[in-house]
Amino acid sequence: MTLLENLLAHRSTLSEEATDHLQALLGEWQTLADMSFADLLLWVRCELADQRPAYLCVGQMRPYTTQTIYTEDLVGQVFPASARPMVGRALVEQRVIRDADPDWSTGVPVREEAIPIRCGSDVIAVITRESNVSTARAPSQLELTYLQTAGELAQMMAEGTLPHPDASRDERELAPRVGDGIIRVDADGVVAFASPNAISAYRRLGSLDSVMGTHVERLDPEPRQLLESLRTGIPVDAEVEVNDAVVIRRFIPLISGGRIIGALLLVREVTELRQHERALMVKDATIREIHHRVKNNLQTVAALLRLQARRLHSDEARAALGESVRRITSIALVHETLSEEARQRVPFTRITRRIIDMLSQGLVGPDLPIEFGLTGDPDELSAEVATPLALVLAELLQNCVEHAFPYDQQPPAQDACVNVCFDRNDDDELRVVVADNGVGLPDGATLDELANLGLRIARTLLETELGGTFDVSRGDPGTTIELRVPLRPATS
Ligand SMILES: Nc1ncnc2c1ncn2[C@@H]1O[C@H](COP(=O)(O)OP(=O)(O)O)[C@@H](O)[C@H]1O
Ligand SMILES: [Mg+2]
Fold it and tell me: Of 439, 364, 374, 375, which is closest to residue 403 (Cα–Cα)?
């Protein structure tokens, strides 16, 4: 829920349609503030506790083109109707109200205007437009064009044609602002005014004509949508790319009394931004390709060791090579998963599943089914954490498979289960518990006495690479190992 929706839901009785209209208005009104050189406040009706009429401020917009009058934030504040008489008049008279004399109460002369906001047949809110007139001097051509257009935009809000009910309401985070470049065209589509930035943007698009006095059709490389908009009155946002230059345009037809009297064309050059985005995509693809190759190389190494193991006669040597193959394969799994991701983070559940698959395919005989369970969500981990953690997990699971269920010595009393549980309630730490219901660790031995290469590798990786802790406890039955991995310090 947006701030506006929240305020309206709690403090006013506006319909859903009216709420949507105001939400769309907030997407447009920066242009009005900038062209008016004025602060804008959006007001809706509400009541005081004693039921006297009042107005609730539900939006505030400061101009980029001049200093603000209000340094404080008024959104959410309620004013008795008597404190804001012009809002009341705009609501009742349903027309734009201008005050004759500036108000000096803030210390500077402020001229206020109240614009009723129409949605369908109702006036649902009022925008006050307040500008500091102390700095007024003979305005430039640019300022005059801005002020004239601002008056027309305000009139459209009062007539209910801005925001346009049929305009698309997509997110427009890159939408051009007044300062980016602005062109004013007349009802025939001929440019009547163009700001220097707008002229530069069209030069980048290859337009050699003088911009002023040129028809949009000649000026713009892809004018179809703009001309269509000038005919229908529905604003459009469109991006155009020519000669590697990318410009986004926002075309707002100006409507007065049902007639299209011209249009405002806001343009913003985003060439560098787009180039940057493309470069990032290429970089991502390259990194993925490298992970893919690392995975292939590791798999080749594993295959070579497997070949070599087959030629050995000593069981111990064969087993040692077999373990190395498994360790290398677990690292390869991480690279494989990273090669599938757009970003350098991996969903660790996927890696865990792959480790379990690898172990249950290679090592669990059909006569000893082990059930693997996986609960909780480790979420995404960076490659720096995922690689050592995958190795640790592979060691622990391998031990469960190898030592927890020596069924040739004693048949298991119950189904053999191994559970991996992730807990990431806390953003800074991942807890991993690996528990089996097997025979348990040999009696009396401490971890240090027990540990051969596997547990040593696991512990060293966890404590030195990941800066985490390693805890072994005897379950009833079985063995439980708990790992705690700090997430931010280790990755930074
Ligand atoms: N889940 C387990 N259940 C029973 N015993 C285990 C378990 N995990 C480890 N152990 C014991 O700890 C010893 C050391 O494990 P490890 O360091 O991985 O070396 P290895 O697996 O090569 O014997 C194992 O030999 C085994 O006795
Ligand atoms: Mg082991």
Answer: 439
Ligand (nearest to CA of 437):
1
d(CA 143, CA 155): 18
Nearest CA to 247 among 272, 214, 229, 264? 272
Atom of ligand 1 nearest to the CA of 436: 1
Residue 403 CA, ligand 2 centroid: distance in Å? 8
Structure tokens at 340: 């599938």
> Is the CB of residue 370 below 6 angstroms from any atom belonging to ligand 1?
no
* 479 C-beta closer than 6 A to ligand 1: yes
Burial class (CB in 10 A: 0-12, 13-18, 19+), 365: exposed
Count of residues making up the chain: 492
Q: Which residues of the chain have pLDDT under 50?
A: 489-492
Regarding the beta carbon of 31 and ligand 1, being less than 6 Å apart is answered: no
Calculate the CA 112 to chain-centre distance: 37
DSSP characters over 149-200: HHHHHHHHHHHT-SS-TTS-----TT---GGG-EEEEETTSBEEEE-HHHHH
Asked if residue 441 has its Cβ within 6 Å of ligand 1, the reply is: yes
Cβ proximity of 491 and 385 under 8 Å: yes
**What is the model's pLDDT at position 490?**
42
| The pair of three-digit structure tokens given for residue 218, joined into one six-digit string | 């000649």
| Whether this model's pTM surpasses 0.70 | no
